[in-house]
Amino acid sequence: MKKLIAFDLDGTLAPSKSKFDPRMVALFDKLLEHFEVCVISGGKYELFQRQFLTQITTEPHLLSRLHLMPTSGTRYYRYEKGDWQEKYAENFTSEQKKAIIAALAEGLKESGYAVAKTYGETIEDRDSQITLSILGQEIVAELGEEGVRIKEAWDPDGTKKLKIRDIVAPKIPDFTVRAAGATSIDVTMPGIDKAYGMDKLMEATGYSKSDILFMGDKIVPGGNDYAVYEHGIDCIAVRSWEDTAYALEGIVSAI
């Protein structure tokens, strides 16, 4: 029997940068009663707070079973002594940040995909990861469901993101440049992906690959969840948070 269930966030537990649906909140709380749970995402910790931490259970004994891994596992948080504690953070130096930010700005301009209207920052320094969001980081916060629709329609087959990635990557060869969310490009140190995050999680918990089940909406070649599958961890591929909810209903009903 699995001991820990790990999830991608956007597209798997909720629409992009959106809050959990009440159905998912109830299932997530129920899951914590029986399993340890991990959420791993390219997003920053503050986005975890916005999307689900303020909605789910406040029971300390349940929150202590939750593992938070923002920025693809380069940061790790646990609930201890009544609050979320950062256990480690693998941050860039200031010089590395400058080089990455410049390359992302140049790459977006050269691609021809820069848009006239953006919402919030387009390049966000997440300390251990730097992310380009072509439409802006706050499009969903400002526009709600319409923002989700615009994001999903901007690059449905992923070709625009891949073109930007291919322009940026040669500019900063010492880093990994990855097409990530619906409208985003992530830059990390080499070797940083969700498989790396799972290794860090196993190191922290003592669990093995066979103890973990992972769910994600990008478990396809080129997708940012695929590395977990290639790493030999059992996975369930989903297309939306509704698919995930359906799978979780089956899991909790069998307990």
Automatic annotation (TrEMBL):
Cofactors required: Mg(2+)
PANTHER family: PHOSPHOMANNOMUTASE
Pathway(s) where this gene product acts: Nucleotide-sugar biosynthesis; GDP-alpha-D-mannose biosynthesis; alpha-D-mannose 1-phosphate from D-fructose 6-phosphate: step 2/2
Domain of life: Bacteria
Sorted UniProt keywords: Cytoplasm, Hydrolase, Isomerase, Magnesium, Metal-binding
A GO MF label: metal ion binding
This protein's name: phosphomannomutase
Recorded family membership: Belongs to the eukaryotic PMM family.
Ranges annotated as spanning the membrane: none
GO biological process terms on file: GDP-mannose biosynthetic process; mannose metabolic process; protein N-linked glycosylation
Principal EC category: isomerase
